[in-house]
Design brief:
Blueprint lengths: L13 E2 L2 E2 L2 H9 L5 H5 L4 H8 L7 E2 H15 L6 E2 L12 E2 H15 L6 E2 L1 H5 L4
Antiparallel strand pairs: 1-2, 3-6, 4-5
Helix pairs in contact: 1-4, 4-5
Length: about 130
């Protein structure tokens, strides 16, 4: 996985031929070391879907998506104040972000990925770059 991030409008990195959405790339980079093995074992889109799909219906709803994609934020929020300060961000620098701001950005990404607008992501939508 590359360590640099693509800029706005640029494609994110790929993983075994699969496009990895920028939000997921950020999540992977923000992960605390203790949670790295969980992602190291994910080898296909269906693995992501299975891990994110809390109710086992074969689709990822917004709440499931937000919960899955927010756990790295929570792991980095060492003082549990709901804000990632510069010191808590990778590299120890950057603009602070609240948990709510983070979840709002994730929700916007979810909406872009939900191309059929049914309120959930299929494996195909989950693997595709946001439109």
């Amino acid at each position: 996985m590359p360590t640099s991030l693509a800029g706005p409008g640029e494609p994110g990195p790929t993983m075994q031929g699969m496009h990895v959405p920028m939000t997921l790339t950020l999540l992977l980079l923000m992960q605390a070391p203790a949670s790295t093995p969980a992602f190291a074992q994910v080898n296909a889109t269906s693995d992501y879907l299975a891990r994110m799909d809390g109710d086992g219906d074969g689709r990822v709803g917004l709440a499931e998506y937000l919960d899955w994609m927010s756990y790295a934020f929570d792991a980095r929020d060492l003082d549990r104040d709901g804000v990632l300060s510069a010191e808590e961000l990778p590299g120890g620098k950057g603009q602070a972000i609240t948990r709510e701001q983070h979840r709002e950005r994730l929700a916007a990404t979810f909406k872009k990925q939900d191309v059929n607008h049914d309120g959930s992501l299929s494996a195909r939508e989950l693997a595709a770059p946001p439109q």
